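User: Please predict the structure of the protein below. I'd like the answer in structure-token form so I can feed it into my own downstream comparison script.

Assistant: Understood. Taking the following sequence of 370 residues as input:
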Amino acid sequence: MIPEILNLSNEEIFAFKLSDLYKNNGYKKYSMTKFEPYDIYLEHKRFLSNEGILTFTDATGRLMALRPDVTVSIAKNTQSNVKEEKFFYDEYVYRIGKNSKECQEIRQIGLEYIGAEDIISEYEVLSLAAKSLDFVNKDYIIDVGHMGFISSFLDELKLTESEQIKILSIMEQKSIHKLESFVANTDLSSSDIDRIIQIMSLEGPFESVLNKIKSIDCNPYMTKAVNELLDLFELLKSNNLGEHFYIDFSINNDSDYYNGLVFRGYVAGSPSYVLAGGRYDKLMEKFRKKHPALGFAIYITNLKSILHKNENKKITEAILVYNDADKNTVMEYRKKLQEKHKQLLILKHMPENIPYEHLYIIKNDELEEL
């Protein structure tokens, strides 16, 4: 529990709750060094969504990176002889914005389940994602997709790698106009285009989306992916979480690193997703690790406006306004009031827009409560 005497911001209270939640589910804190060798990230830049990495040369001449990602660090440092490990983290990462080209300091809180190989582990990670967003707002949604579904579909289309990347971007944007412009320069058949449009529309509550899927020509791998999600949804539904989970097959991550389950979380009041995660067995393989792995990150930066919205509405227990009183008088009454109140704010002038329970003022060396 959070001690009431601590005057924490909403952001710090949220971080405290997440830490408590993850620890109680067996996750241990992972802490990164601020600088790591750049070559670790150079090989896996695509995993970082094409955002730039801040680098510098240290005193020995090594090219170093300023903490760009936590998941890559965990994947790299996982011991090969350990079958199962659970980590959570609260770290600032540093990236160069894709559009702004400015240095960005991003606070992320997340978890990684190394050894997550079955539906039980997937349920655990998704349920913890749901509980995390519930701390922010009861009105939240987690969209779920499957890389196996979308990858096997794209393989059928016989597109080049660059064409696949383009079509994935179009599907994620759900832009029919961009799709029409794109397919005009390809050999895709009208039936292929119809299937792309159908898959782009596969978004919404599980039951309604599953009914739509029945009308789509699915190969065995696509059907397998759908069945995996259906089994997972039944588990979420039986534990009273089903209403918060939707299907969205336009969600995609780099298929060189991700496979299987992918998901994004949204809360009311935020225009973009605030949580993202998925299965990244392929990233582990690139580090020559045979561990399956699953995790998510919460982008605290995207939540700041929501977490801080009611910051100034918090009620201060007591305020002491000292005006022009001398320091000895102020210190005397300060000590007296601190014995009476756990929280005391001292101001020279009358407060503006600060809710309070008790207001004291020093007039002519006398203490008055207003």
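That's the full token string. The two ends are 34 Å apart (CA to CA).
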